[in-house]
Design a protein that fits this description.
- By secondary structure, the protein is α+β, with helices and mostly antiparallel strands.
- It has a single domain, classed as 2-Layer Sandwich (Ribosomal Protein S5, domain 2).
- The chain has helices at residues 25-34, 68-85, 110-130; strands at residues 36-40, 43-49, 56-60, 93-99.
- Helix 2 (68-85) packs across helix 3 (110-130).
- Residues 136-142 have low confidence and may be disordered.
Length: 144
Amino acid sequence: MSDAPEPDGGPARFTLRHASRLTGRDAFGPVFAARLRRDAGPLTVRVAPNGLGFHRLGVSVPKKAGNAVARHRWKRLVREAFRLNRHAWPGGYDLVVVVRPCRHPESFTSARVAALLNEAMPRLHAAAQRNPPGGAADREPKSR
């Protein structure tokens, strides 16, 4: 675990402050537009570099993922995994984690969700380094 700074510039903490959250459609839009994603089990992790030096999290759990209790449980699991593991991830990214329906959601624990995120983040970081925003892949094709 590194001593990555918190949004307020202090030492690494394991709390999830408001500055580390993505809320609302306006905050999610740029992450979806960045087109960097990785499927990890029932999770789809989307990222966009934010230039802030720390990670921010947004969670989307559609109604198909279960009733209100099940959806809230998914949100708690993802937030917990993010809160405990974000300091070990490279870069500064805005993450949106989308939960897809699965057969046995009750079998997922915080540790299992953390393992999925820990597997996805280094790969997404490598993909972001290969294809930075504003690069050739983001440009419109030339029309003749």
